[in-house]
Amino acid sequence: MSSAIPLSKVSARESALSSADRKKDKRIGLARYIFADYLAGVISWVLFFCFRKFKLQDIPFEWSYFQDPNFFLGIAMVPVFWVLLHLFFGTYTDIYRKSRLTEFGKTFLTTLIGASILFFTLILDDWVTGIHGYFYSFSALFALQFIINSIFRMFVLTKANRQIENGEVGYNTLLVGSNKKAVNLYKEITDRDKALGYKFVGFIDIKEKKKNKLESYLPRLGNKASLRSIVEQYQVEEVIVAIETSEHPEINDIINMIPDQEIVIKIIPDMYDILSGSVKMNHVLGAVLIEIKPKLMPEWEIIMKRMFDLVSSGLCLLLLSPLYLFLMIQVKRSSKGPIFYKQERMGLHGKPFHIIKFRSMYVDAEAAGPALSSDDDPRITPIGKILRKYRLDETPQFWNVFKGEMSLVGPRPERRFFFDQIVEKAPAYRHLHKVKPGITSWGMVKYGYAENVDQMIKRMKYDLLYVENMSLAIDLKIMIYTVLILVKGSGK
User: Fold this and answer.
1) What gap in Å lies between CA 316 and CA 396, rounded to an integer?
2) Model-level pTM?
């Protein structure tokens, strides 16, 4: 849970925005933002070139100097460099959710890093007049890019903010709750003079009641049991939980029932949340809410994680090819049947995909229906026992990682058959679908393979801790421990 969010005035009569309209607005806004960064890069490079030629080198102005190959090389490469750098640091997200002050700070830091990279790669070996020349060159490069980029960005973000305030852009929002707190929150929202993008589709009751206070303002769409279907039906992008103190035990169930997609959840805090520091103010006006953001890692870490997955899986597929050939021969000799085993599993956001493994069981091992394996499972082939002990049966999944269906580190994907059983006992299991499944995970390191649903639930707590605390550093630790398990052959 993170920063407190001020809400704004939204008319109850406003209709929900269509998915196509929202996507179009976001695409146009993002394209405008990227173009502003590119244009800022072009202008700042032109001005920097002029500063270097006509100020530092004290050369009389001549148009012929703009025929310098370095000038055109800079025009072609430097603006693209700035766009790619901003992309790496996760700048290019929905501009209608951005804070201008926050973006100003991010622009400063990114420009400082980018200017340092350009200085040491393009400028350091260029003509200068001593140490002062280096200082003036770097200062001019940084200042021109930062000032111009900031001006362009503030212009785009201000335009976006006005679109929100005028009700031109918004997010389909569902209010959970129906009594005093929900009514007070709704009135506080509608009392504000300017909108901040909340398009209410209606509200739901926690407990089905014949009478409630909010129905005079918003349509009642159902109760807690229908929350998931309502979110999907009305294409809800934000859920605001405004329930009474006596209903707080329901919050966990509410969060578990919301689809594991990029939906922002906001909750009215109680006094404990405020005193414990869970609520951070970023606006002095409006209602204060705790926000649960769908992004679990910074954008730059997400990009680095995918790049690492792509490079590592590609190298493993190449370097392990002799081992693959040896194992293919052994699997084929061990028993009749195919070398590889494909099975449908649930991936990111519950999307199905086919996992690839070396076959470690006899053919028709699940003729009687889906069943988990155990250490002494008679369905496992002799070579299969060795493959499972050293996790070699999992190595073909590097292809799943290379294709982007899996990651090196992430919760183990399960079949729909077992997923339904687990969720019935532990609804929090749905949260594992917030991230891509992995070849190895904290649950696999700490617990290993599960032999029944109860063991899957015990393993789940480790994977949930990983999902809520995931980072590149934790991924590295998990991979190190996985390698140690492989070397020792201590896998369960």
Assistant:
1) 10
2) 0.70
